[in-house]
């Protein structure tokens, strides 16, 4: 089936259904393609309102129109997507106003995570089944998504994710991050395949971590050095600086993704200012 046929059907379907979908608090969706969908080139709507979840589409036929919305209705967010290992049988597109944008190419590795920005409080994905000769083939298209809120106050945008954090962002991320480490960068690797820069950090102090078991290299010993590998987007061109830093970030689809990397000297100034003005949202460790 040629690619130009489905987008026309999809855009017509979108214009008829936009804003009229059910408002459900679903996180995951599992379904199967049908012979009727294959013959009619049908587009099945899926509405998910959750911050993270999984989609499993067995025996892909026709297409899916998946609308992702944050639990904070109307708030801008970025949606990160990662295909599961062994996923096959369909292609994933981002629906723009007038055309579709391919998110994953066939040659992209399964571990690759790609993020897109919301439009008018939602992200619409179009998942198109690959052309097939055998309608009973064993194929499952599966991927995970993670929605990350974007601050209106800071005008944070997906294109600005490489910019240094403001004082307000530092304080917010310190209190809301999944992990906060203090330490030095000992190694830097630009992973072009996965489009991330991997920073090996020797930890001198753990300010907070919600899921310690996700960091297998952190030892409970007080003597042995502790190391973690953290990630930033490759496009940021991260360089290894000398001195000690504070590393603040979240787990995004299984990856420890960094939000802010201020120098310890900078963090101390921000901390002191917040304590004096009593603008801190949580306990700020030194």
From TrEMBL:
GO annotation, cellular component aspect: extracellular space
Organism: Larinioides sclopetarius
Cross-referenced PANTHER family: METEORIN-LIKE PROTEIN
Gene Ontology MF: a single term: hormone activity
InterPro entries xref list: Meteorin-like, TIMP-like_OB-fold
Record flagged with keyword Nucleotidyltransferase: no
Compartment list: Secreted
Family: Belongs to the meteorin family.
Lineage of the organism: Eukaryota, Metazoa, Ecdysozoa, Arthropoda, Chelicerata
Protein's UniProt keywords contain Disulfide bond: yes
Signal peptide span: 1-19
Origin superkingdom: Eukaryota
Protein name per UniProt: Meteorin-like protein
Keywords, ordered alphabetically: Disulfide bond, Secreted, Signal
